[in-house]
Specification:
The protein is α+β, with helices and mostly antiparallel strands and 76 residues long. It is 20% helix and 29% strand. The two termini are 18 Å apart.
Length: 76
């Protein structure tokens, strides 16, 4: 199965999207968007930029806190 983007939430709590992998595992969960159109635009941006994006290893740098940034949560 091919991965897919799923938009979830509503206009009261906001919208987010998740990218699922071929094994139905969640790869990425986005931050919150006020409108569904903003989530759709962010998905389009991810689709456009991910294929040509460079991998930058920042694992040696200390994290500013134990919590991931609210704008993008990456799960494995």
């Amino acid at each position: 199965m091919v991965g897919q983007f799923e938009i979830f939430g509503d206009s009261i709590v906001g919208f987010r999207f998740r990218l699922t992998g071929g094994d139905d595992g969640v790869l990425v969960i986005s931050g919150r968007f006020d409108a569904k159109a903003e989530a759709v635009a962010a998905i389009a941006s991810v689709r456009e930029n991910a294929a040509s994006g460079h991998i930058v290893d920042q694992s040696a740098k200390p994290l500013p806190s134990e919590n991931p940034p609210p704008s993008l949560l990456i799960r494995r």
